[in-house]
Amino acid sequence: MTLFKSTMTAMGALALFMPALAETPQEKGFAIAERNDVSDAGFGTSTVELTMTLADPSGRTTKRDLRIDTREKEGDGNGDRSVTVFYSPRDVEGTALLTHSKVIESDDQWLYLPALRRTKRISSSNKSGPFVGSEFAFEDIAGSELGKYDYTYLETVTETVGDEEMELDKVECIPAYERSGYDKIHCYFDTEVFQARKFDFFDRGGQKLKTLILDDYRQYEESLWRPHTQTMTNHITGKETVLEFGDYEFGIDLDERDFEPEALERL
Amino acid sequence: MSRLVLTLVGVAVCATAPAQGQRFDVRPEVAIEARLLPDDPQFDDQLTVSQLALILTGEISWRSKDRDTRVQFEPLVRLDAEDDERTYFDVREASISHEINRDWDLLIGVSQVFWGVAESRNVVDIINQFDTVEDVDEGEKLGQPMIRVSRRSDFGTVEAFYLPYFRERVFPGADGRLRTDPVIETDKARFERGGDEWAGDLALRYTNRFGGVDFGAHVFHGTSRNPRLDFNPSNGFLEPFYPELSQGGLDVQWTRGAWLLKGEAVIADMLGETLTSAVGGFEYTLFDVSGTGLDVGIIGEYLYDDRDQTNLPNTIFENDVFVGTRIALNDVQDTEFLAGAIIDDQTGGVFASAEFQRRMGDTLLLEIEARAFAAKDDPFIRSLEKDDHLLVRLTRYF
């Protein structure tokens, strides 16, 4: 081995080794979350209809049908914009929630009450409270913008999610926004297509409160992945909320005006 | 109207093809209502103990696949077992709206519009007549015929309204409760403008938002929704007189954290006089109290009105304080409780109200409302003093 060659080999090994040395668990955690965020870029607009089934431990169930329109974020500091419309139960039909999510600032939200034809700007400080009686808290359904959490890579594990065995990066996600109901969240991203597969939510006492499983991922337009079943289980109460999604439609004709409060009465 | 029905039937046939992506819905509602009045009535002829009613309503709607066109029809029939004036038919909505392009939007037909931000009373909310028969607290509205053109831009939204026909307020009859003394003869209404309901009103509204501030401004020229009640000495009745009204107003809400700060004000010209009506206050919500999921809202508002009550249509909201609370359980049944009282800080008169609602199963809604009046020195509340009541309504959705 010539000196030249051995030097090059050493440098190569060093070059390979350097990022690993420099990368802290925080950086690696962020990189994993970012990889997931980037995999979603460029979807533009989407609409999807879904059924939310609320079940208590005795097996009683209630269904809610809704539709979610989403418009991808534009500019720094902004998150996605979404409109959630309820079709059932009938007494709340037409009720709509418009959210302009933000990364660091609190989101802007408006609620449309169809009986009064009233659009009301509402406080978005409700993070830990339940969303329409479900096991999803408001913070669980808010856009998961990168800047909302501090990430720490924990380990890579092999687990069965749904009925598929997969390799998962386990990342500790700590809410960076105020009034979260969680001490921390363990977020699991698969290492193949970088999608979120599971979340374990820990309450302020450090106890495991809820688990969310994202399952039945389907691929749209080359690179967009969407889960079609989301199951949130509350370990304390035994209650469960299942979201079952229909087919997503991407690139539909919804402009920025359709995500303004004035548009809510025209859904 | 028959053309509308034909359109809807045609649409119903189309709707059998779900892949089309359009939406056609027929959703009837039936409600039974019992009003329980524990006190003996103040006036002869007034009904006693209980008042039963049947309400048939619902919505037929269609939305095109591109969501640009909407047709809505919402009739309401109310059958009151006791009071003929409370038996009526109204079209709450019968409209076609179309988004012409990204910026322009048109609505033609009978519709309802809400303006304002406050909880106790919305002084800027001028488009629709209130259905005072259905509800004493200005919560229900009659459908208003209109043409509405909206222009949306990066600098806010401008809406222009032409309202060709005026809807009169309907008052309870002699045998009804919650009435004035003497009785108001709804049929004897007089109008300053053109002598009838066809004078036509115009309104312009602008809305925009900056950060946490949402605001609206409007001007209106037309007929006052609130009539002056003139005593007719020849028959001893009160007769509504609807004067010409020109007004301009502002409504603003500032949302910050769990606080909502609200203000509405109107300056109006009527019968040669100028008046100011305003309401302002706050709403603060404690979310997810102690991790129970329960939200508790606290509302405080002040109502102000400087009108000359001898010459102009009267208001009971002269200098009043409103305090209220809203409690939402955020449970599967969407259980909600609302309570509030308006206290006149000069006469000491009080109007208090509590409402409870809870869904039962998927298709039944139970609503309970309690209303109480204490007049003290308040001339407007005096005739209602024996009308404290409890209302129970059960609505079945199909």
Tell me what the structure shows.
The complex is a heterodimer of chains A (267) and B (398). Chain A is mostly beta strands. Chain A has a single domain, classed as Clam (outer membrane lipoprotein receptor (LolB), chain A), CATH 2.50.20.10. Chain A has three helices and 14 strands. Chain A has helices spanning 3-22, 25-38, 138-141, and strands spanning 45-55, 61-71, 78-88, 96-102, 108-113, 118-122, 149-161, 164-175, 182-190, 196-203, 208-220, 224-234, 240-245, 249-250. In chain A, strands 1, 2, 3, 4, 5, 6, 7, 8, 9, 10, 11, 12, 13 and 14 form a 14-stranded antiparallel beta sheet that branches. The N and C termini of chain A lie far apart (73 Å). The mean pLDDT of chain A is 89. Chain B has 398 residues and is mainly beta. Chain B has one domain (26-397): Porin (Beta Barrel). Helices cover 3% and strands 54% of the residues of chain B. Chain B has one helix at 2-14; strands spanning 23-37, 49-63, 69-80, 88-99, 104-111, 144-153, 156-163, 190-191, 201-210, 213-223, 228-232, 237-242, 244-256, 259-270, 273-286, 295-305, 319-328, 336-344, 350-360, 364-374, 389-397. Chain B has an 18-stranded antiparallel barrel. Chain B is globular. Chain A binds chain B through residues 54, 56, 62-63, 88-93, 106, 108, 116-123, 125-130, 132-133, 179, 181, 253, 255, 257, 260-262, 266-267, and chain B through 27, 29, 66-67, 70, 97, 99, 102-103, 105, 112-114, 117, 139, 150, 152, 157, 207, 209, 212, 214, 253, 255, 257-260, 285, 287-288, 291, 293, 295, 330-334, 359, 362-363, 365, 395, 397-398.
